[in-house]
Write a structure and sequence with these properties.
CATH superfamily: Phosphopantoate/pantothenate synthetase
CATH class: Alpha Beta
Oligomer: single chain
Strand order of the largest sheet: 2-1-5-6-7
Bound molecules: ligand PTJ
Radius of gyration: 18 Å
Number of helices: 12
Length: 265
Amino acid sequence: MTRESHVEEKHPRAESIKLREKMTRGVEKNVTALAGLLAHGRGEAFDYILGEETTAPGMRAITAAAATLLLADHAVLSVNGNVAALCPEEFVELSNISGAKLEVNIFHRLPGREEAIEKVLREAGAEEVLGVGEDASARIDEIYSDRRRVDPEGIFKADVVFVPLEDGDRTEGLMRMGKKVITVDLNPMSRTAQYATVTIVDNVVRAMPLLISEVERLRGEDVEELRRIVDSYSNREVLSDSMRVMLERLRELSEKGVFLELHDR
Ligand code: PTJ
């Protein structure tokens, strides 16, 4: 056990518990909304069904997401309280290697939260953070929550927006504005997952390092190859295949038993 964690490495659910600890620390620092804990718990449940690993359809979506980011004229990574608690360093790294800007955009705009998220990003190495306070001076009428307040230099003029762990209506609004939307969502049935251009059905903590590697790998490719990846990608197919992975896993577990699988590990 360390000062940061109440769990020993040998604990069978150590990784999952450590993520929970990051989330609760996020709440204490005013970074994460209380509703973010509910969202995290929902994600955990879907991750259990997925098998807590990146799947083949998840990987296809990650490749398409990397190509989409590299082809963008003006890409923005939208940061909320959950991802700021879970993986701020990875967001800064993805921003550095892809050229996408970082913007704080939160659903629950409570006093001090945007600044707290900005602080986390700057501590993780970010040099520029859009969308904080008066900088979020543009308004997107297609969005029916506080998320409509955006930075004119960021989400407002972006052609590609990365919105992981998102509530439903913004994706729809951004798509209606003609933007491409990339998301990470463990629930393939959520409105965001269904509406987005590219949906990575995976845990954001597993998907981010893979997305960074894919951007690094594809950075050297020519534009035609990136276009080929994007044009041959079907989000509908990836969503169906992700659900099929869940279905198959539940079928297998229902036949052989969950505990047998645990003992096999
Ligand atoms: O910080 P704020 O104020 O912007 O609020 C952020 C939350 C996440 C609370 C807000 O966007 C929200 O309410 O989201 P929803 O509608 O609960 O949707 C979040 C989605 O993310 C759900 O479909 C979850 O299953 C999924 N999810 C939760 N944790 C993870 C996840 N997906 C991938 N990785 C996770 N770790």
